[in-house]
Amino acid sequence: MKTILVDAVDTFVIEGKGVYEPMYNLLERYPNRKIILTNASDEQMESFSLTNLPYELFTLKHNPDKTDPIYFQRMLENFNLSKDDVLYFEHNPKAVESAQSVGILSYHYDTEKKDLGGLKDFLDKNLQ
């Protein structure tokens, strides 16, 4: 069963508001493991409301950021996963490209549109 990699800030967590409940409710429909990915440093964890989240959290504390493919290689190694074991959604197009460059199937989630229907379609199609 594939693991769902979830972008943290501005996607799953709205700064100053916490977890985006409609997205959480969508993700809870899937029995798959979920891992939240962030660039946040220790200092940013509190300010971005990244503590006490419902899923595992992974960060390399900006060393490097998700825009560097090394981030995704290290994340896969950390969890003993392969690129075929995961799929990812993210609001930053450069981070999407970075994940795709290491072979991770990725979806650009537009935070302005908050298109949960498009995200659901991506998950339904690719979690098979």
Provide a descriptive summary of the structure in words.
This protein has helices at 21-27, 42-47, 69-78, 93-101, 116-126, and strands at residues 3-7, 13-14, 18-19, 34-38, 56-59, 86-90, 105-108. With 128 residues, the protein is α/β, with parallel strands linked by helices. The strands form 2 sheets. The protein has a 5-stranded parallel β-sheet, sandwiched between helices. It has a two-stranded antiparallel sheet with strand order 2-3.
Amino-to-carboxy terminus distance = 8 Å
- List unreliable stretches of 5+ residues: none
Mean pLDDT, as a whole number?
96
Task: Give the helices and strands as they follow along the chain.
Answer: EEEHEHEHEHEH
Beta content: 15-25%
Count up the helices. Answer: 5
| Helical content (DSSP H or I, runs of 4+) | 25-40%
Strand order of the largest sheet: 5-4-1-6-7
Explain briefly what this protein structure is.
The chain is built from five helices and seven strands, in the order E-E-E-H-E-H-E-H-E-H-E-H. It has helices at 21-27, 42-47, 69-78, 93-101, 116-126, and strands spanning 3-7, 13-14, 18-19, 34-38, 56-59, 86-90, 105-108.
